């Protein structure tokens, strides 16, 4: 039995932990809901016949953004983890790459290759002929593109294809198939390994050269230095062979990412690494690349402030002993993880899923708590609130009573200041009161202002007029 070891590229599942606030998930809410944006993705599941020479039913998920279209099309190919005839994987739909393209106004198609999910047929295996595996899957992908290009609401003249791991390999294979109207290829950690090939590295390098000889579509490649499946020396050799035969590719070597750079697309932290690069690539191939639907992406996260060391439990302000115990538990959770605190001593901890920070803020809002992010992943992001300004003294009767009469007379003899009210020192208050009294007497003498029935408090002033 052949077992393919590819990463499937779905988001990590999330588990919610609530400390101090006593919040619980709302009715009908599940962990699955936390893996996708909280807005409509207009999801449809299609059944499309694959390659006409060997037709099978292929399961395809189609997502579309808000609006009427027509939308450019992004076709995103899945990876796999320990895939076999008895382990076909789940339908591919929860990936930040899909949400990125929705945010740029694309329709997104996520096909399941034959032998995966609810698609028919068996997983394609050809020993160490990895190029042949890619070619057969590419024929199915091309049929899917041709079908969707005729769909209402899709602009079949503007298509980009991408994929991760096994899906990245199939994306490169599609480029060699020379499909019409595909403007660019996006390869995230592309490659594969099967249990029936003892020389997988050589097969990958040879396959990359074969694809490159027949590819004229520009591509962008993303690889990291701590990839659990494909070491740096391997993917650099693949790229060199691909370029040496005339293909066009841009490499984004992004270094280390978390514990495994193969999982770049599975975490919200990865967006800051790859999204700007994909934006620039789309611009170069004259494809839409501007953010038009921000609701499909997590909200930006604050950067580190170095307020304290992440492991320093005692440095977290406001927390009770129970809150500090919650922070210790937070430090044991996997990333992505966030810890929020409020001035009232409450705390919320969230990890995993589409946007743990926004989920934590929602919990705080429901509990009527004003929370601030304290820690995200392994960084402190807390900024203490600014100190309150000292109380300002306003001109008034209390100030007049507090100062001796002799001092008020001395200050009243000083030059006058503008008559607007506002924060002032003791001398300013006296001068402003003297100016208001002078102006009031002048208005009364002029006859412009009359005081009918002068009351007892104004009797002396009225008698002088």
In total, how many domains does the architecture comprise?
3
Spatial strand sequence of the major β-sheet: 2-3-5-4-6-7-8-9
Mind telling me the CATH class of the largest domain? Alpha Beta
Helix/strand class? alpha/beta
Mean pLDDT: 82
Indicate the radius of gyration in whole angstroms.
34 Å
Residue windows where pLDDT falls under 50 for at least 5 positions: 1-33, 413-422, 454-465
What percentage of amino acids are in beta strands?
15-25%
CATH-assigned fold name of the largest domain = Rossmann fold
Give the CATH superfamily of the largest domain: Alpha/Beta hydrolase fold, catalytic domain
Cα distance spanning the termini:
113 Å
Q: How would a textbook summarize the main sheet?
A: 8 strands, mixed
Q: Helix amount, in percent?
A: 25-40%
CATH architecture annotation name of the largest domain = 3-Layer(aba) Sandwich
Number of helices: 12
Number of strands: 13
Order of helices and strands: EEEEHEHEHEHEHEHHEEHEEHHHH
Tell me, briefly, the overall form: elongated
List the helices and strands and how they pair.
Elements: E1 15-19, E2 44-49, E3 57-63, E4 71-77, H1 96-103, E5 107-111, H2 130-149, E6 154-164, H3 166-177, E7 182-188, H4 200-213, E8 219-223, H5 232-244, E9 249-253, H6 271-284, H7 321-330, E10 337-342, E11 347-351, H8 356-366, E12 371-376, E13 379-380, H9 397-402, H10 405-412, H11 426-446, H12 459-463
Parallel strand pairs: 4-5, 4-6, 6-7, 7-8, 8-9
Antiparallel strand pairs: 1-11, 2-3, 3-5, 10-11, 10-12, 12-13
């Amino acid at each position: 039995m052949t077992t393919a070891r590819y990463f499937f590229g779905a988001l990590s599942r999330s588990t919610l932990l609530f400390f101090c606030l006593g919040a619980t998930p709302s009715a009908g809410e599940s962990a699955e809901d936390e893996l996708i944006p909280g807005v409509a993705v207009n999801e449809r599941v299609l059944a499309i016949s694959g390659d006409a020479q060997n037709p099978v039913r292929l399961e395809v998920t189609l997502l579309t953004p808000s609006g009427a279209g027509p939308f450019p099309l992004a076709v995103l190919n899945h990876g796999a983890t320990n895939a076999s005839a008895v382990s076909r994987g789940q339908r591919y739909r929860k990936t930040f790459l899909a949400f990125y393209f929705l945010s740029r106004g694309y329709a997104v198609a996520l096909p399941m290759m034959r032998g995966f999910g609810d698609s028919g047929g068996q997983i394609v295996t050809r020993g160490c002929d990895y190029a042949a595996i890619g070619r057969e899957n590419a024929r199915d992908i091309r049929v899917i593109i041709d079908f969707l290009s005729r769909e209402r609401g899709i602009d079949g003249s503007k298509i980009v294809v991408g994929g991760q791991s096994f899906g990245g390999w199939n994306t490169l294979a599609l480029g060699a198939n020379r499909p019409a109207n595909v403007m660019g290829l996006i390869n995230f950690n592309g490659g594969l390994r099967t249990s029936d090939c003892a020389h997988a590295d050589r097969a990958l390098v040879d396959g990359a050269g074969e694809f490159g000889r027949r590819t004229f579509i520009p591509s962008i490649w993303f690889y990291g230095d701590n990839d659990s499946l494909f070491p740096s020396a391997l993917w650099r050799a693949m790229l060199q062979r691909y370029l040496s035969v005339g293909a066009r590719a841009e490499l984004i070597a992004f270094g280390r990412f978390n514990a495994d750079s193969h999982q770049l697309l599975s975490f919200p932290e990865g967006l800051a690494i790859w999204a700007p690069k994909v934006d620039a690539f789309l611009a170069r191939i004259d494809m839409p690349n501007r953010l038009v639907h921000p609701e499909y992406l997590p909200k930006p996260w604050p950067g580190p402030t170095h307020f304290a060391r992440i492991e320093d439990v005692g440095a977290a302000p406001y927390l009770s002993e129970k809150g500090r115990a919650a922070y210790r538990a937070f430090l044991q959770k996997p990333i992505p993880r966030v810890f929020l605190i409020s001035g009232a001593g409450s705390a919320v901890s969230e990890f995993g899923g589409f946007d743990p920070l926004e989920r934590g803020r929602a919990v705080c809002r429901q509990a009527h708590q004003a929370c601030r992010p304290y820690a995200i992943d392994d960084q402190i992001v807390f900024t203490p609130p600014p100190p309150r300004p000292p109380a300002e003294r306003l001109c008034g009767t209390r100030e007049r009573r507090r100062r001796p009469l002799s001092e008020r007379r001395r200050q009243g003899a000083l030059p006058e200041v503008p008559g607007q009210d506002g924060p002032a020192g003791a001398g300013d208050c006296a001068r402003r009161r003297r100016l208001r009294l002078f102006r009031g007497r002048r208005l009364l003498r002029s006859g412009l202002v009359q005081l009918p029935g002068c009351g007892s408090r104004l009797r002396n002033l009225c008698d002088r007029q």
